[in-house]
Specification:
Largest sheet: 8 strands, mixed
Structural class: alpha/beta
Shape: globular
Distance between the termini: 62 Å
Length: 872
């Protein structure tokens, strides 16, 4: 049962709860007299709103996981797919005690929630935090990491009435989750709705204000938080502007200064999310906090939580600028209990009629076949999450999945009343209201599942799920583990990794043990980028009334000096003390991505925002004039683009196709900063590049299968230009062969994500021996697509030997000689995978590597001996 509250602004429904009166018939009853309400008194709109849309889910408590895996293996055999099974057995908890007990207010509430002892990693971390150490913890999902920072933070509030704490999250949804999780410690029933953004937590005689500070919140919420909250929950983008207000906002400046003057703890959640350009700028932001707090007479302590990355301690110290004695203690041994999880690594079967560009069935087809079979056999679906690569693919996949499942329920199971959708797409551009609605539906059981980008990879609470299907590789081991951690939280869980026709993925498909047991990748940031350091050093001075002393303690001033803007705007008034020459300073967004657009659906005279925060490069690719795209199971067509208002106007457009754009980048060297000879065959250059991205046209892609159209020319879109960091390899004294060079480009593109913590969308490669900019020498250009400063180019430069060796391994692992989608083809190749000489590519890579590492090549495999570490 659930209650219907008829407020003046519309109906409000409470959550479902068990009905004690078992003999009641289904219906709507009056809460006062218990009599059934006449159907005639309920309007059609109200009846639709009151409908019970919950779906009974297939649970591994009812059907053993072993049986479901047997079903999936049957389907895979039928479709010709290969499966490798990897088991993560159930494990028991290991407990430990704190060095001294928690305050009674906290220990009592923990016991009420059934927590009588802490896991060893929790106790160990809390002990270190209490002893004044900075801590970074990297245990698995659902291992209770939030208690590691919640306990010390709440304890400090109880012990000192002036202490404050700051929680930093990369996602808005995580701040709401964090506020909601604090309810377990509240000694009174909280009446405040979490969505409002401010609430009071009662701890004994203390009343602690907790508030969310972020864009989109009402001014009244922010005002309450500034004036009364001791625990601020925010994100790095909003904190960037909060720091400006400490001195320069008259209204809340005193409250902000008071908060930072009493700041004891900074919690950095999902630390691994701060990589690349964002991570580099967050590192500067944290240094600004430290310099401000030092000026106000306090020193802060950090607690960071991260996924399993290769360098969590080093990243935490780079982000905060703390090393050595003031560095971080790493807690990585997970002592929490875990349910059984089975991981199936699936390679799709071969097509009966293969083409030059596709040998195997599409991974989403395999996922659909698995879910169709389960729905047909058991009459219900497991609660599922499917991870897909990008926004367009989540929309398309959910459309195809809903169509297939609806057909099973209607035609085979003969069910008439079917929900509007079984699976809903989820990605960053969906507006906040729709996102919350989707998350609420999956928790309530009104959806069978979600098809998501990595937007739901982090620890946002969407309830307990049974199956996680990854359509394509997530790009890093950390992401794989995060996504896999979505299942098996309250019972056995199943993870299905379906590999795409991509060289790196097919390499892992051929080496499943290496895929599961390889080391996690390193996360890279650049704290020496001259432009980034110079910009934030100016902000730091501005936040200290225009002058910063001992700047070298926080920032690499030597790097900032290389930026012309720094020397134009700041002067060194005495050794180590820098002053702004101009009192006025404009704050740029933390990460600038050019124009940001809102996608508006026009219906008559009204316009509704359906997608938000779309950058101009995405508009050029996906929302150009004439583009047709899927949203919420419907097709829309771009009508016009308003540059003045940063809006894309679209209309519902009933059709049977979507569009796929054709994009091309051209490159100009703006500044060369380094050039060196690596060996007799290879020279390397490094510097700043200007990239111009143009739309050449688009193709129509049928929704229900069929032939993709020819290129439709499109000349109405302005090109997008940006500057970025680049690296170029020039191969000298070798006979020109663009088809071999093209193969090497593809192999390196596939290898980079396995060595550097990044995805294919973070960087681009371009190869040719016909570029005037590079003296018509065979050249491969690497550049960051995010505008530079991500540290990706530096990491590629540092680990170039490893990347080239991995590229050669990818080519040699596949037994074909001509090249195929498993080794030389890329799905996003702008040249449609034409002119690929695999054997020439292998010879070229071998020759380039001959002077770098010892490379042993045979017909079946490649053994690489890395001289420095001796690793095979």
């Amino acid at each position: 049962m659930r209650e219907i509250k008829q407020a003046t602004n519309g109906l409000r429904l409470t959550d479902w709860e068990r009905n004690i009166e078992q003999d009641s018939k289904d219906g709507i009853y009056c809460r006062v007299c218990d009599s059934q309400v006449n159907d005639l008194l309920i309007s059609k709109e109200e009846r639709e709103l009151l409908k019970d849309n919950r779906m009974e889910a297939l649970s591994f408590h009812d059907v053993p996981l072993k049986e479901v895996i047997s079903d999936i293996k049957y389907v895979s055999k039928r479709e010709g797919a290969k499966i490798h099974q990897y088991s993560l057995p159930e494990k028991s908890a290991v407990f430990d005690d704190l060095e001294y007990p928690l305050p009674t207010e906290l220990s009592v509430k923990l016991k009420e929630k059934g927590i009588h002892r802490l896991y060893s990693h929790q106790a160990q971390a809390i002990n270190k935090v209490r002893n004044g150490e900075n801590v970074v913890i990297t245990t698995g999902t659902a291992s209770g990491k939030s208690l590691v920072y919640s306990m010390p933070v709440l304890e400090s509030f109880i012990q000192d009435d002036s202490t404050t704490a700051l929680y930093l999250s990369p996602l808005k949804a995580l701040t709401r989750d964090q506020m909601q999780s604090l309810d377990m410690f509240d000694q009174r029933s909280s009446q405040n709705d979490t969505s409002f953004g401010y609430k009071s937590i009662h701890l004994g005689s203390k009343e602690i204000g907790v508030g969310i500070l972020e864009g989109g919140k009402a001014d009244s919420v922010k005002e309450l938080t500034y004036q009364n909250a001791r625990y601020w929950l925010t994100n790095v983008h909003y904190l960037h502007y909060i720091l400006q207000g400490a001195v320069h906002f008259k209204k809340n400046g005193p409250a902000i200064r008071k908060f930072f003057k009493n700041l004891k703890y900074i919690v950095i959640d999902e630390l691994h999310a701060y990589n690349g350009v964002l991570g580099s700028k967050v590192a500067m932001l944290i240094r600004r906090i430290r310099s401000l707090c030092k000026a106000l007479g306090t020193s802060v302590q950090f607690v960071a939580c991260s996924a399993s990355i290769g360098n969590p301690k080093e990243l935490a110290e780079e982000i905060t600028g703390l090393k050595g004695e003031n560095g971080f203690s790493l807690i990585r041994k997970d002592c929490s209990p875990a349910h059984q999880r089975e991981i199936l690594l699936m390679t799709p079967g071969f097509l009966s009629s293969q083409t030059d560009n596709r040998l195997r069935r599409a991974p989403i087809s395999e996922a659909i076949e698995v879910l169709k079979y389960l729905a047909n056999k058991y009459g219900k679906l497991p609660k599922s999450i499917l991870f897909h690569g990008n926004r367009k693919s989540t929309e398309t996949a959910s459309f195809e999945l809903n169509k297939a499942i609806r057909a099973i329920y209607r035609d085979t199971l003969k069910k008439e009343e079917l929900p509007q959708e079984f699976f809903s797409p989820f990605h960053a551009h969906i507006n906040a209201f729709k996102k919350q609605d989707i998350m609420n539906k999956i928790k309530k059981g009104e959806l069978a599942g979600i098809v998501s980008t990595s937007a739901l990879e982090m620890g946002i609470d969407i309830g307990d799920l049974d199956i996680c299907i990854m359509v394509g590789y997530a790009g890093s081991k950390a992401s794989f583990l995060q996504q896999a951690g979505r299942v098996g939280r309250k019972g056995p869980g199943l993870v299905i990794q379906i590999f795409q026709e991509d060289p790196l993925e097919q390499y892992y498909a051929s080496n499943p043990v290496e895929f599961m047991e390889r080391q996690a990748e390193h996360v890279s940031i650049d704290v020496s980028n001259p432009n980034i350091v110079a910009e934030h050093l100016q902000y730091a001075a501005h936040e200290l009334n225009g002058k910063i002393s001992a700047a070298h303690r926080y920032f690499k001033v030597s790097a900032a000096r290389k930026s012309t803007s720094f020397l134009e705007n700041m002067s060194e008034v005495k050794h180590g003390t820098w002053q702004l020459m101009n009192e006025e300073l404009i704050y740029n967004p933390l990460v600038t991505s050019g124009r940001v657009y809102t996608i508006l659906s026009q219906n008559g005279h009204t316009k509704d925002a359906i997608l938000e925060g779309v950058d101009e490069r995405t508009v050029l690719r996906d929302y150009h004039y004439g583009a047709v795209f899927l949203y919420n199971q419907k097709t829309y067509r771009v009508l016009r683009i308003s540059q003045k208002n940063n809006e894309v106007i679209v209309v519902a457009f009933k059709t049977d196709y979507t569009t796929r754009s054709q994009i091309h980048d051209s490159i100009h060297i703006e500044k060369e900063v380094e050039r060196k000879s690596i060996n007799e065959s290879l020279e390397c250059g490094k510097g700043t590049l200007e990239v111009t991205r143009r739309l050449w046209g688009y193709k129509k892609v049928p929704l229900f299968g069929g032939v993709t159209s020819d290129l439709i020319a499109e000349n109405n879109m302005y090109p997008v230009k940006y500057t970025t960091e680049g690296l170029w390899l020039q191969i000298i004294d070798i006979e020109k062969d663009d088809s071999a060079l093209h193969v090497v480009e593809h192999a390196i593109t596939s290898a980079i994500p396995s060595v550097v913590k990044c995805s294919n969308s973070d960087f681009s490669l371009l190869s040719s021996s016909n570029m005037k900019e590079f003296d018509y020498t065979p050249t491969i250009v690497f550049y960051e697509t995010g505008g530079g400063g991500a540290g990706i180019i530096d990491t590629i430069s540092e680990r170039l030997h490893h990347i080239l060796n991995k590229a050669l391994s990818i080519l040699k692992t596949c037994p074909c000689t001509e090249g195929c989608p498993n080794c030389t083809h890329l799905s996003h190749c702008e040249r449609s995978n034409e002119s690929l000489n695999k054997l020439g590519g292998i010879r070229l890579l071998s020759q380039v590597l001959s002077g770098m590492d010892i490379v042993e090549v045979n017909s079946n495999s490649v053994n690489i001996v890395e001289e420095k570490t001796g690793q095979l």
